[in-house]
């Protein structure tokens, strides 16, 4: 029996280990961001206390990967590019964020196929955030 393709139903959410797996991913992500000198500029866009940021990212990823819609249940709706447009985010910021996430994904023990899938999917909203920021700051 073949397992469902990533992106179908909750296959991606299950491959990530459910909410507990996503919380481990997010914890590793923010730990790596705190430890990386290269990530300093992106880390400064976050509050000093990351507790809420950690919860919001894990809850967002839950629904985004086909699991429970925890973000909307706890925080309401979110427009990812519009939310991030308050900061001038360029391609270098996006790559720093994605690099920290890639390192965190590597630490999770995901299958290579899911790790590749997840990182490639995360590039889509990352690019949309850069574009939204560029548009907003070009108008300012």
Helix content: 55-70%
Radius of gyration over C-alpha positions, nearest whole angstrom: 15 Å
Mean pLDDT: 91
How many helices? The count is 8
Distance between the termini: 55 Å
Biggest sheet features: none
> How many β-strand stretches?
0
Low-confidence stretches: none
Structural class: mainly alpha
Shape: globular
Order of helices and strands: HHHHHHHH
**Approximate strand percentage:** under 5%
What's the arrangement of secondary structure elements?
Blueprint: H1 11-15, H2 18-35, H3 40-43, H4 51-64, H5 70-75, H6 80-84, H7 91-106, H8 112-139
Helix pairs in contact: 2-4, 2-7, 7-8
Structure notes:
By secondary structure, the protein is an all-alpha fold. 69% of the residues lie in helices and 0% in strands. It has eight helices and no strands. The protein is globular. The protein starts with 10 loop residues before the first helix and ends with a helix. The mean pLDDT is 91.
């Amino acid at each position: 029996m073949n397992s469902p393709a990533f992106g179908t139903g909750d296959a991606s959410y299950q491959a990530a280990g459910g909410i507990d797996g996503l919380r481990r991913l997010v914890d590793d992500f923010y730990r790596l961001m705190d430890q990386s000198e290269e990530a300093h500029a992106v880390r400064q866009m976050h509050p000093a206390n990351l507790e809420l940021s950690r919860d919001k990212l894990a809850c967002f990823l839950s629904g985004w990967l086909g699991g429970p819609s925890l973000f909307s249940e706890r925080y309401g709706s979110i427009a990812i590019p519009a939310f991030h447009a308050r900061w001038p985010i360029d391609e270098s910021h996006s790559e720093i964020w994605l690099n920290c996430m890639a390192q965190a994904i590597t630490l999770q023990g995901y299958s290579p196929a899911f790790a590749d899938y997840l990182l490639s999917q995360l590039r889509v909203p990352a690019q949309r955030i850069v574009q939204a920021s560029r548009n907003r700051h070009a108008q300012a």
